[in-house]
């Protein structure tokens, strides 16, 4: 998780990743941040995030993004 | 038909069960949608809203927001849409500027004004007896649209119902919209671009599927499948995001998509090319227009291919002329372009309470833009850029877009913007700002050498600077004014 937090902070430095609740629905994580997060995850973990995984539930918190990355790495 | 709300009422009688609007949460047929509009209009009347009153409505990017807008128009009141993410200070300024009597949003404002919650909008549907309904006249004020102000201060633009209808007809005719069209609109509905595509579909008796952006591609693809979407309305920034996140999977809809329309800002060549590959048999349109004079020119880049800077042909209500500095009509050519001026029923009534701005922009019936353009040998209109943007360098005119497109062809360039800067010898010369792709170390000299191979010598910028980000508006338009200020 620590490694992921570093990647997320690099991708969207202005976002407070410790906030509880839905980062997307509360407008904390905007579309530009999400594109940046996807780019960073793609290069940091050498994964492709398929269109089917591009849904709010997978980006609503740092934990959700962590779970997504783990799932894609396991595949 | 004198208003969009009249069109919806007419279709509610003619095709009551047809899909009208869907937003992911609600799906309305024409009859249901009309009953919601009429019901909320009655609620607004009970709240004391009268014809001519201005009501500011904050975009919630769903059917409730659009219902509120049309309910106001049915009452003869004026719809003043504002952005979803607008700052609180700006909401207050706009409310004060238009002397709004009510404010409708999902969150109460931090200043005193009569407030209606957006959650209230879709709770008043009622059967309507048509003999008591009075629709607005074409000459009534329908809405005041506030521009984002890329070229200066944000301006309020007055749009009459007849203007709304003419813009909608420009779109319907331009894209050859079929009655059974189902259009996906994921762009902001508070801006003229998205709002006008929605109006066009309503006037055509077609269907609209809304989405809040394109980032969550899974949801976009699901809605395209569920509702059998046949067309899409995008701005270049949304297209770029969709191509990046959806990848080639977007191509699965190639057999389903009749057309994709884009507008608001120039589309990067690489994105245009990729779209053509993914949708070889669809019509791919780029619209030119302004909030002041909507959807006036259209170009199908799948049919006509790559014609640099081409904006195509005028739409059905638009008549173009080219004017010189003194406002005299001229025969514009590539070397002697004129200011593009447009007349037609789609032209705004004027800027809100701003006679001096009206005087500056109107020349008789024409609205004169700062865009420098000419007619090519093929009869199509070509844009060189805005007056302040076109670079006048030692007697040559340089289109900043041409320089940018050439630079973007170089691997490792993620984004760029070209502006004029002062030159003691040439008057002006081009300067290029660029953003390097992640992990790429690129020298200015390499970019310079690359551009020398792509462009005529006088167009190659000798001043090149790397920056972290190119300033852009929500729809991807470069904010050149910010870069120019930086150079002063």
Tally the helices of chain B.
Answer: 13
The helicity of chain B comes to 25-40%
Number of domains of chain A: 1
Radius of gyration of chain B: 23 Å
User: What characterizes the major β-sheet of chain B?
Assistant: 14 strands, mixed
Largest interface: A-B, 15 and 17 residues
Low-confidence stretches of chain B: none
Shape call of chain B: globular
Kindly report the average pLDDT value of chain A. 90
Oligomeric state: heterodimer
Helix content of chain A: 40-55%
What ranges of chain A have pLDDT less than 50 throughout 5 or more consecutive residues?
Answer: none
Give the number of helices of chain A: 3
Mean pLDDT of chain B: 93
The second-level CATH architecture of the largest domain in chain B is 3-Layer(aba) Sandwich
Care to describe what's here?
- The complex is a heterodimer of chains A (75) and B (488).
- With 75 residues, chain A is mostly helical.
- Chain A is built from 3 helices and no strands.
- Chain A has a single domain (2-74), classed as ACP-like (Non-ribosomal Peptide Synthetase Peptidyl Carrier Protein, Chain A).
- Chain A starts with a helix and ends with a helix.
- The mean pLDDT of chain A is 90.
- Chain B is of the alpha/beta class and 488 residues long.
- Chain B folds into 2 domains: 4-375, ANL, N-terminal domain (Rossmann fold, 3-Layer(aba) Sandwich); 393-487, ANL, C-terminal domain (GMP Synthetase, Chain A, domain 3).
- Helices cover 30% and strands 26% of the residues of chain B.
- The radius of gyration of chain B is 23 Å and the shape is globular.
- The termini of chain B are far apart.
- The interface between A and B is medium-sized, with 15 and 17 residues.
């Amino acid at each position: 998780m620590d490694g992921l937090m570093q990647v997320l902070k690099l991708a969207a430095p202005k976002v407070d990743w410790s906030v509880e609740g839905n980062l997307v629905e509360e407008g904390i994580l905007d579309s530009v941040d999400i594109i940046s997060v996807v780019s960073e995850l793609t290069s940091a973990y050498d994964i492709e995030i398929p269109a089917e995984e591009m849904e709010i539930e997978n980006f609503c918190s740092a934990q959700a993004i962590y779970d997504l990355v783990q799932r894609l790495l396991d595949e | 038909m004198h208003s969009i709300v009249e069109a919806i009422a007419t279709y509610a009688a003619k095709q009551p069960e047809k899909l009208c609007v869907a937003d992911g949460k609600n799906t309305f047929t024409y009859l249901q949608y009309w009953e919601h509009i009429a019901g909320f209009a009655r609620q607004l009347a009970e709240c004391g809203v009268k014809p001519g009153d201005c009501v500011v409505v904050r975009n919630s990017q769903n059917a409730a927001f659009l219902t509120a807008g049309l309910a106001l128009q049915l009452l003869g009141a004026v719809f003043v849409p504002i952005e979803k993410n607008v700052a609180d200070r700006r909401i207050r300024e706009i409310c004060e500027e238009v002397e709004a009597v009510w404010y409708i949003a999902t969150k109460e404002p931090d200043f005193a004004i009569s407030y209606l919650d957006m959650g209230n909008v879709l709770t008043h549907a009622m059967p309507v007896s048509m003999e008591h309904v009075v629709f607005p006249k074409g000459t009534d004020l329908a809405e005041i649209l506030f521009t984002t102000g890329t070229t200066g201060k944000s301006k309020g633009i007055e749009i009459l119902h007849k203007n709304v209808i003419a813009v909608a007809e420009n779109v319907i005719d331009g894209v050859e919209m079929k009655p059974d069209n189902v259009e996906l609109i994921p762009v902001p509905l508070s801006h003229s671009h998205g709002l006008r595509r929605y109006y066009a579909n309503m006037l055509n008796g077609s269907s609209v599927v809304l989405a809040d952006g394109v980032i969550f591609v899974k949801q976009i693809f699901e809605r395209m499948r569920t509702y059998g979407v046949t067309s899409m309305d995008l701005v270049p920034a949304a297209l770029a995001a969709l191509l990046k996140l959806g990848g080639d999977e977007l191509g699965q809809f190639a057999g389903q998509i009749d057309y994709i329309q884009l507008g608001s800002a120039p589309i990067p060549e690489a994105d245009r090319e990729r779209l053509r590959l993914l949708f070889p048999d669809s019509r791919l349109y780029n619209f030119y227009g302004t909030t002041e004079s909507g959807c006036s020119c259209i170009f199908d880049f799948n049919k006509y291919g790559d014609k640099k800077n081409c904006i195509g042909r005028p739409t059905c209500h638009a008549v173009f002329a080219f004017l010189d500095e003194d406002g005299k009509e001229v025969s514009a050519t590539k070397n002697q372009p004129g200011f593009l001026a447009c007349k037609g029923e789609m032209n705004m009534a004027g800027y809100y309470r701003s006679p001096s701005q009206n005087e500056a922009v109107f020349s008789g019936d024409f609205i004169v833009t700062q865009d420098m353009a000419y007619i090519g040998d093929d009869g199509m209109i070509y844009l060189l850029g805005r007056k302040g943007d076109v670079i006048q360098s030692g007697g040559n005119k340089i289109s900043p877009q041409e320089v940018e497109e050439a630079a973007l062809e170089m691997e490792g360039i993620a984004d760029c913007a070209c502006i004029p800067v002062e030159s003691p010898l040439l008057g002006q010369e081009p300067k290029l700002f660029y953003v390097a792709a992640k992990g790429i170390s690129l020298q200015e000299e390499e970019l310079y050498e690359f551009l020398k191979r792509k462009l005529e010598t006088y167009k190659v910028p000798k001043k090149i600077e790397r920056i972290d980000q190119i300033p852009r508006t929500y729809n991807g338009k470069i904010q050149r004014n910010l870069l120019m200020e930086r150079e002063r």
